[in-house]
Amino acid sequence: MPALMPRPHAATRRTALAALLLGSAGLVAWQWPQRTPPRPSGNAALEGIGDDVCVVAPPTPYDPALGQPLTAAREVPADARCPVCGMYPARARAWAAQVILADGDAYFFDSPLSLMLYLGNVAHYTRGRTAEAIVARYVTDTDTGGWLNAHEAVYVTGSSAMGPMRAGNLPAFADAEAAQEFVQQRGGRAVPFGAIDVALLRRLAPNLRADHRLHSD
């Protein structure tokens, strides 16, 4: 009776199979498809705000070819990711916000809410960065779609308007009159930049980090 041959180890079987595929005419090496985790969306994205989750959001460097001042507002790149929630701001351009740093790098946000969360904890969301290095902050005018200086804009909180994450947000307006017209249509109340404090942000983002500070003026 012939001796039983030992069963090859799993790794050996995989190696032999790969060799067979590569050695056969007309065949190409097979690679297992890579599974890409789905991007956060809806309330699931909001739940991640404030958690210790590392979001890969590389900055967008200044491009002198644009022919504009370093601190001027820029258009949102299609591949830019929000460092707070990981979403792609260009996909909801009407809500986008941005900051520009002294070295010319820019970060883009999916909404004014994410911008405010970022300003209260810059080093957490972008390692090695500081609030002091920020030289410009912009939000999108809800009425016109243009860029507004975030310090000078007026925001509405508590309205029926849902942001990109389908949750409470902070639509921005050029002045108090425009914000009040929005309030009459969608509810809520108008607040200036300086009135957006930790308590207000915690109502909009219940998972706000405990070490969140007031945003820098």
Automatic annotation (TrEMBL):
SUPFAM superfamilies: NosL/MerB-like (SSF160387). InterPro entries: N2O_reductase_NosL (IPR008719). Gene3D superfamilies: 3.30.70.2050. This is Nitrous oxide reductase accessory protein NosL. It comes from Acidovorax facilis.
